[in-house]
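[SOLVED] Predicted holo structure with pyridoxal-5'-phosphate

Edit: marking solved, answer below. Original request kept for reference. I posted the sequence and ligand SMILES and asked for the 3D complex as structure tokens.
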Amino acid sequence: MKRQASRRRFLTEMAAGAVVLPAALSRTASGQDGAGPPPATPVAPPWPHGAFSAPRDETWWEMVRAQFSFTEERVPMNAANLCPSPRSVAARVEELTRDIDRDCSFNNRAKFRGLTEQSRTGVAAQLGVSPDEIAIVRNTSEANNTINNGVDLRAGDEVILWDQNHPTNNVAWDVRAARFGITVKRVSVPRHPASAQDLIDPFVAALTDRTRVLSLTHVSNVSGIRLPVRELVEAARPRGIQVHVDGAQSWGALDVDLGALGCDSYSASAHKWYMGPKEAGVLFVREDRIPEVWPNIVAPGWGNDADPDVTGARKFESLGQRDDACLAAVGTTAEFHAGIGGAETEERIAGLATQLKEGLVELGMTLVTPMEPGLSGGVCIIEVPGDRGTALRRLYEEHGIAGAGTGGLRLCPHVYNTREHVARAVEGVKALRGVILG
Ligand SMILES: Cc1ncc(COP(=O)(O)O)c(C=O)c1O
């Protein structure tokens, strides 16, 4: 309850503070800081006073789109892989990188400790956990590997995986098994689940007395299926099984509240749906688990003996020299999210994804991803029995939509996409129907 209240308070305060954001954006866009040629896209209009309580109509979402510098000719719809950052975040990275290059003394860089802590506080509040439970790492890959290398397991112990996990939460466990003799088992779910129960039952059936870890993915990058994490945690925790969740496709897309989900650890990348700086990510480890998880890397800042000097999950970000500008810009990204709202973001993405999926089904395409928002997120995939490579290339070159070929034809609309972008993606698929269906 305490966490919920502090999450709410932080989000309100951030939203109020974020009103100043567009002033900084228009300063950059007008070139006053000598940032080079003017952008090819419209300058971000001032974010009007009171915008955060204004109704989230299409005009409001156009204002959000204008915070990004991509052109209408090359529209990103591949958030599952990489997202553009809003101008405020890109400007912050640039500004702080220049600052370090102008004066890289310890004296000048001392401020970054505080800025990184601000980033941690912003991220933690939005995820509904304590800042001491958050490590700011480099990406989901690193965070997943910290868990599968760091959890204390012995020969004979069993780890249960979803067979749709990313290699860093899948093959990485096989490498661990080859080294330490643990057993790795993979669980499949129905290709077209009709309900959350269809996704719960196969995992519960796989748990045994030897199961120590259940390692999942919140939203799959290869099917778009969203697992009912809270229910799976409720099944595993009473049996003493720890649950790790790869949130690469949920952080920044869904209104994730880790306190409510109840998992032991959670990993994600800032450069995906979170729209943050590149090569930044989070690893959450629940307070009581932190002492039990070994770090992957020990570097200066850790301390002088086996006990870390740093507090809580900071021990997982002991990585030597970091990109301080990037770490600070994670906090700028948290401000940007607070300006939109977590629930509002999830609702908008669900709306765009539904528009997209309905449009594709009307064309006779077969969805890999469930239509129901409760069983999916922003990752939308259709089957491609035809020529996937040509379809993707032509969708980009002839229709200006950048998707991916993961799991079929994958399109991931986000808050920077408009209804027109989604309609254009559907029109593109219609024009390429023969190529896609073969
Ligand atoms: C589910 C999932 N986990 C992990 C990753 C790895 O992310 P990163 O390359 O940012 O570490 C991805 C990348 O697509 C992913 O989809």
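OP edit: The longest helix spans residues 342-362. Thanks to everyone who chimed in.
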